[in-house]
Structure formats: structure tokens, C-alpha cells
Write a structure and sequence with these properties.
This protein is of the alpha+beta class. It contains three helices and eight strands; from the N terminus they run H-E-E-E-H-E-E-H-E-E-E. It has one domain: PDZ domain (Pdz3 Domain, Roll). Strands 2, 3, 4, 5, 6 and 7 form a six-stranded antiparallel sheet that branches. Strands 1-8 form a two-stranded antiparallel ribbon. A hairpin with a 2-residue loop joins strand 4 and strand 5. The N and C termini lie far apart (58 Å). The N terminus is likely disordered.
């Protein structure tokens, strides 16, 4: 008897984890005033791999902000920021040094969306953002 096998792509599984609220996302950053894109993000990780730091995942896209205007969606996985990979970097470093920056500065995100094969590239300009 032959057994049928199937696989689910890695990023599809990670996006489902976030959308279903399973505990595979580390803390979110929402404080003070800074130049940003209007995204709340978490960092994916593999609980079976010690000290694994995965890519960022979009938890929320704020209305009227640059990320919303260019088409970033909740559940999108950010694989690169300005052509630098997000996987393997510490969460705080990603937020402070990559996601945030001077108001008016351009930033490019490479996104993997669960519903699409190809990666998406979005470029936007940081605006003044107040965290909660």
C-alpha cells in the first residue's frame, strides 16, 4: 500500500501560526515617538531550535499609514528590510535599526504573503509615529 505525502510551505505555516494566535511570536514594540511605517510586528521562531530568530511577521497595519497605503497586510512575513535579511537578527535590533529610522527616509520591505508564490517588494517613506 502506498502512502500519499504532502507538505506545507514553511512561510504558510508561519503565517497560519500568527493568524491563529499560536505562541510562536515574540514581543511587539509600541513605545514613544519615532519614524516608522505604521506596522506592529512580531518575530517568528522555531521553538524546537535553540535561540532561533525567524523573520518578522505583520500583526497589524495602521490605517492611513505608509504601509497600509502601499498594500502591506496583516500576516505578511517580512523577509528583508532594505535588502538585508530579517531572519537571524535580534528583535530589538530589527526594530531599532531597521524598521524605525529618520522621518522622511525611504525603506523597502520584501514580503512573503501566504497566498502568493512570489515575494512582494514595497517601498515607502517613514512618517512620525507614536507608539502606545
Amino acid at each position: 500500500m502506498r502512502t500519499k505525502a504532502f507538505y506545507i510551505p514553511f512561510f504558510t505555516v508561519l503565517a497560519l501560526i500568527v493568524l491563529l494566535g499560536l505562541p510562536a511570536v515574540t514581543g511587539c514594540s509600541q513605545d514613544q515617538k519615532f519614524g516608522g511605517m505604521g506596522l506592529n510586528v512580531g518575530q517568528l521562531f522555531d521553538p524546537n531550535v535553540f535561540n532561533h530568530r525567524g523573520p518578522l511577521v505583520v500583526l497589524d497595519v495602521l490605517e492611513g499609514m505608509p504601509a497600509k497605503r502601499v498594500g502591506v497586510e496583516k500576516g505578511d512575513v517580512i523577509t528583508h528590510i532594505n535588502n538585508e535579511p530579517t531572519e537571524g537578527m535580534e528583535f530589538d535590533k530589527l526594530i531599532q535599526e531597521k524598521m524605525r529610522g529618520p522621518v522622511g527616509e525611504s525603506v523597502t520591505l520584501t514580503i512573503k504573503r501566504a497566498s502568493m508564490e512570489e515575494k512582494l517588494i514595497f517601498t515607502m517613506t517613514r512618517v512620525s509615529v507614536s507608539g502606545n
